Amino acid sequence: MKKKGNFLYKLIIMILLCIIGFSGYKVGTILYNYYICTHENNKVIEAAKVELKKNKFRINWKKLLKMNPDTIAWIRSEDTPINYPIVQGKDNDYYLHRLFNGEYNFKGTLFADYQIKKPFKDFNTIVYGHLMKDGSMFKSLSKYDDIEYYRKHKTMFLATPEKNYNIKIFAMVKIVADSDLYKIDFIDAADKQRYIDKVTELSKIRTSVKVGPNDRLVMMSTCTTDVNEDRFVVYGKLVERK
Questions:
Q1: CA-to-CA distance for 18 and 11, rounded, in angstroms?
Q2: What is the mean pLDDT of residues 80-85?
Q3: Would you say the C-alpha torsion 184, 187, 191, 192 has a positive or negative sign?
Q4: Least CB-packed of 74, 96, 116, 226 within 10 Å?
Q5: Other C-beta atoms within 10 Å of 53: how many?
Q6: CA proximity to 73, closest of 24, 113, 30, 110
Q7: Does an H or E element contain 75, and which?
Q8: How many whole angstroms separate alpha carbon 158 and alpha carbon 241?
Q9: Is residue 48 scored above 80 in pLDDT?
Q10: pLDDT attached to residue 73
Q11: Is the distance from CB of 129 to CB of 31 less than 8 angstroms?
């Protein structure tokens, strides 16, 4: 009985050590992937000489587009980790878990919906990004239901190869993954106004930003931690910077 007890004890210890080892491996892998993503983005920032100086973006677009021809914009929100390129692929799956350089990574890259014909020129441009536990990617969007956070982050900055913009935040909504707010085709000005009215009605914050059918919207979407997989969406309107 004593030998049997010693065997069971050693077996339990071995199992626990295996569990601890496997758990450590998984945690290590996750942390390594976080590091790789941050390192890669910093390389892109340095290579393309990205900087926001005197409220103007300075980007070496020639270098950036050479690194990845799918690049369509750069977005930045001051005092947050949001300082990333935006790409547009042939579908909405490729960049979901791929870095700017094409390597697989669960963090992915910020990307515009592939169905949008003219990103940031059409009425509604949808940009997707993950909500990461380390605060990176689009995690900051989840804070916009706090009016105090909004007051400190009313404006984001967006640069395209042609122009620079302010993104004036005007709404934050929580919607289901298949919500009809994920809309890119509009019939006319009245259809656009109905869309704006619905977004404003559902918004968790109230702002003084005036939005109309002649404006261009940026719909920034990220996941939530809810089991029902809802989405946080922050809306802004583009205002060209002179």
A1: 11
A2: 92
A3: positive
A4: 226
A5: 7
A6: 110
A7: strand 71-76
A8: 10
A9: no
A10: 95
A11: no
